[in-house]
């Protein structure tokens, strides 16, 4: 019977000299295909007691899974492991949070599988996937693609074998991708390349590569042979870094496919010419038989967290031991809790190999330093400067800070970890002696105001007092603010933040309704006036709306008392603006504008100063005759009288007052002033002034040359009489180019219609939008008669226009 020597590091010296050749029985996996996915209980049977475990330790890692039985249940569970070095998301504030959790949720929603994640001792990720077979396979593929770092490799196989890898309708390829959780890219038929690219994890690539080579071997027209070799002896056949099997392949021209460690298969497949293939098989059989006779095993306990150091990057450490000692080292799977490492080799070499295993296991260590979590950011330093000083000296040391935990974890070469630990402990001691922290409660509704626009306020406090201030995010709805740093700076920052909060507690917001036309005046040229108000009330924030918003709301914010004072001040300012913004328009004949201005502007300046008003005259090249006076009402009236007086003195200007009931004023003025404008134009451009609407006055003032004033008065009274009896209006349309013919030379034609019918006919002014519209006003019978005459004239013009156009066409 075979036996296994079980050693610890302490008993290693005792056993080293007493090793003798022994043979062990190694369990083999005979099935060519992987078993159906197991149930959790089947896949992970209870581990035996320690004694029993030691007795069976001669079995290779993972041999206990030989008891797996195919399951018939519709729901299955699979567990697999992602090593730390292959994890995509290593740095998380708290396990299960962040991008990783989001990805898992998406995978569960997409596939319908259930996922459970946990961290192993070595910081690798254990993932349990439950659900229907199809869902589990899809979820596993997604997890590998999104949570595990990806690599790629190429496998050359004959071009004619590619279609067998793809399978009917691509089913074989899809199944292979699902089983190995990889992405397999096969060149297009028109691409001469024979290279198949595989992307995935290291383990997945190995499995997929093995499967692709097996498919190719089956299709190879050359001889194919399968040799059963116990899994434990595969490393001896492959040799260190696969050199031995590479030499045999090169020398015999035979392709030899050894299953990777992650694939539970024992057969080695040979493909080649019959004679050379036989040579290759014979050589490998010889190696196998020799190793079975000459090798023995020892089992040692190595902490699970140290296994990765024995394996080394990409398995290099295992290959180094195999190369130097000829001993194979078997490590239990990462998802197994076993800590037993088995060494297989010739007895005289086992001691040296064991020394190397322990050396590699102990070459790296994991240690921790106690440090309050609030000090972590100071140990790290601004932009990681403090930590960089340590990691630059010892780049192989990994330093990990976990939020909320009062410790720092260090991992790396033992010597370097010890030095780094000493340095960090010194930093912690120094920081504890000279740093302090305090926590204050401030209602979270004020937090954004404490932070300020783009963090301006809180950044100023941090820089000024050399402290770190943690304000919780809005989503937490927490009132707790933490201040850390120099003790004096902490107290000063605390005092300022509490004062700001107290001020905000007393803060009020008030909306003032101010007509938008006054906003620019209150702001002043280049903001001078608003700057004066802000200087007067420095604690009050005054916000004007954007002009494009057409809003009249001006917002004041600040301490209650100051806001009230500022409100009263601005309301008085607005009242003054309203009082001083009374405006009247005075029509003055254009030829007299220069006299009103006076030499060098002397007259108008004097009127402005004495009446305390603003007087605007139209530009010299403008057709407008209106002078606009702005200021207090009484002052505007006084200025108006002065200007009218100048006009009266300069010409034979008569002024007549006509009494017309106020209720008729709007109808006499007409839509947009069209009716009254037509009377003024017809009567030599006289000025007709109606009293302000709502004043209740009946007095209408007509001003101009005497004869024109009398004519306008007569027309106005006649029109008013018509309006009082019964006024009737009709609109007719005529092309604008007909209007001059309808009016006639000097207005002769239209005057004839007016005189014969007694109706008033109004043509559109140049600024009117509707240039086709002609309005007839008067008694109904008069209006109807005028309408009839005008429509006849328009019809004649239309006929003439049509005949002219037709004649032009014929002559062309």
TrEMBL record:
SUPFAM superfamilies: Eukaryotic type KH-domain (KH-domain type I). It comes from Rattus norvegicus. PANTHER family: SCP160, VIGILIN. Residues 776-803 form a coiled coil. GO terms for molecular function: RNA binding. It comes from the Eukaryota. The gene is Hdlbp. This is Vigilin. SMART domains: KH (SM00322).
